Amino acid sequence: MRKKFDLQKKIFVVATGAVLTLALAACSGSSSSLDDVQYSLNDATAEPSVSFQTPFTTDETSTHVIEEGDGEEIKDGDNLLIEATVFKGDDGSKVGSTYAQSPILIPVGEDLKKTAPELYDVLTSSKVGTSFSYTSNMVPSADASGSPSASEAAEDTPANVEVYTIKSKLLENATGDETPQKDLNSALESFKVGDDGKAELKLKADRGDAPKELVSQDMIKGKGEKVKASDTLYVKYQGVRWEDGKAFDGNFDGTPAELNLQGVIKGWTQGLEGKTVGSRVLLIIPEDLAYGKDAGENAPSGPLVFVVDILGASDNPQAAASMQSPSASASGSASASPSASPAAESAEPTTSAQPTSTESGK
């Protein structure tokens, strides 16, 4: 089981109705303060370290700004990428960290404001690059219906010390140089996103035979960093079947999806590597690079067409190392959907397919 999965669950719980997990071993002692913790942030790509008197206990939820960032200001509605490291309150040992894989995606909105106001407040009063710590005397639980809730820990229960660094915030939309409609693949009739955030992707009725080769074409060419095959991407997308043009999946009206390029269908892996952050990409994917002839019950069959907005990307050192390993398999399985849940547990990536995309294909 990956340690990052544990960290993601902690943050995911915050955004859906509870607060961060605490250590539960009971010890006696007076209430501790985050101000008294000694922090060493090292650099932006390395795990922080801390030193504090144990056991660390608290009778409240609190935050402490360790170092203020000098990046973009953060506002309600932003989607943030945050690095996290959690330390046990009873002995100071590390519970887990995101630094070996990818940062956590946290939407800053009403859900977070209602369920974790202290976390919401520190985020919306900060800039990108800020590092802060968090602790709480609340522990997650579930109500009678199974919905997340929280309750106070017993007095003198050791509490985790959690250190977060706001790495970046995602773009709100694809932005860059637009490709004229006449230069786009001839199968595409139109694509638009309405005021309600819902996307509509239309194919021409006379679009011809099913595609035999992958088409990967910039509708908007972003000016951000280039995507690597081992990256984790943060995207909004709309997908339709080539056969009948019917939509089967999409999230333009929701939170960006977090996707490791080594855990999705081959058409995505090959078609998005080398693209730039900020781009809107048209993918026309033949059946053998989609879900194949034996697509599962919940997977669309046949060739597929996607429009993908690349709103952010992050390094995934574990995925990169796996691709370089001699034992990496070239036939790793893809996720059942391009929109794998950010909190879903997955095995280490094993696919090592190289990009063979066609840049145009009018």
Automatic annotation (TrEMBL):
Source organism superkingdom: Bacteria
UniProt cross-references to InterPro entries, sorted A to Z: PPIase_dom_sf, PPIase_FKBP_dom
Keyword Nucleus applies: no
MF GO annotations: peptidyl-prolyl cis-trans isomerase activity
Annotated Low complexity bias: 317-353
EC assignment: 5.2.1.8
Domain PPIase FKBP-type: 230-314
Signal peptide start-end: 1-25
Keywords: Isomerase, Rotamase, Signal
SUPFAM superfamilies given in the database record: FKBP-like
UniProt entry tagged with the keyword Isomerase: yes
Catalyzed reactions: [protein]-peptidylproline (omega=180) = [protein]-peptidylproline (omega=0)
Family: Belongs to the FKBP-type PPIase family.
Protein name: peptidylprolyl isomerase
Native source organism of the sequence: Rothia amarae
